[in-house]
Amino acid sequence: MPNRLGQRLAKHLAQRLSRDPSGGIERTEQCELKGFPGSIRVLDNEEALTEANQQRLGTTFWSDGSRLDTGRAGAGVALQAVPGGPWEHVEVPMGHGHEAFDAELMGVATALEWALERQPLGPIWVLLDAQNAIDRLKSARPGPGQALVLRAHRAVEKLAMRGQPVTIQWVPGHSGVVGNEQADQAAKRAASKQTAPGFEHLSLADGRVYKMPRGWNLDPVAGKAPKRLASRYYQLKTGHAPIGTYLHRIGQRESPECQACKEPHETVRHVLFGCRGRRTGRRALYRALEKAGVPLPTAAEESPEARLFAEPIVTQGLLQFMAEANLFNDNERTAREAESSDAWGWDTLEEGGPGVTLEDE
């Protein structure tokens, strides 16, 4: 059964992707969940513009990412080593299979590694106009962009060991700030160039198809579940599920609010552990955890959902939770709208003639 499901997924990817995915999928890894080892500053628009146009002690790198209409992405970094001097640039072509989000993170990681290579004096500043990338830098949790976040964190730690503190700061985009415009132009040039070595994998941030990170085997327990239930399992595992935060991000819902209990942000963690409207399913999940000898989640634990989805012995309990919590029938219209944007949905798991992929309901 799992092998047939793998064959169906491979066929689906081949039909959907515009490039050869043989280079693999963006990797994720379990690691110590630490915060950003430097400083992060996101000011209000007016103050951010004022500071962006001021001279700072140390060296300032400007980074940006771009994804063209052709689907090609690239990152750019700009540096003016001496006030009034010439601009220097680093351009990183990334090709297809990446989002602007990936390119923004690549720009930050490249800027920090360029700082290590150049060995300038004083504090290091990286200014960029993507708040979603800045927010992602706050944690090295598994998920889209993790590899680039880890690269950035490691570079910051090395710079700190040299006595050079790092600050990541937001700058409003397309506001006439010269450094930001220089980085923007460099990123667009990079996106139009031939792909650089090392970008043959697919990004987890590409929401058009489901992408399974290496190290995630198709779970045989989920593979025997009803199609819709298994679909929800993998959607929650990746975070691309018809829940408030994801639907809000892709423009399918005006608010990230939980429809079941009206909490302001419906995340995977909230669905599993906090939603008052899903207590029945949660009791079933906790009974399954106790039976399997798996520690129950605690409020102090940073990512209990990642831990549970990484435990094969918990799969049956998670599936039972999803069934009893009605996760694959509630708000079905909204769910299908989400799946039209993120194709790891029911259609992906449909049978394709001989060779059943998942058992019928």
UniProtKB/TrEMBL annotation:
Region described as Disordered: spans on this chain: 336-361
GO molecular function: metal ion binding; nucleic acid binding; RNA-DNA hybrid ribonuclease activity
Catalyzed reactions per annotation: Endonucleolytic cleavage to 5'-phosphomonoester
InterPro entries: RNase_H, RNaseH-like_sf, RNaseH_domain, RNaseH_sf
Enzyme class: hydrolase
Domain called RNase H type-1: residue spans: 55-192
One of the GO BP terms on file: DNA replication, removal of RNA primer
Keywords: Endonuclease, Hydrolase, Metal-binding, Nuclease
Transmembrane among keywords: no
EC number assigned by the record: 3.1.26.4
Source organism superkingdom: Eukaryota
CDD domains in alphabetical order: Rnase_HI_RT_non_LTR (cd09276)
Family from the record: Belongs to the RNase H family.
Name this protein carries in UniProt: ribonuclease H
Organism in which the protein naturally occurs: Talaromyces stipitatus (strain ATCC 10500 / CBS 375.48 / QM 6759 / NRRL 1006)
Taxonomy of the source species: Eukaryota, Fungi, Dikarya, Ascomycota, Pezizomycotina
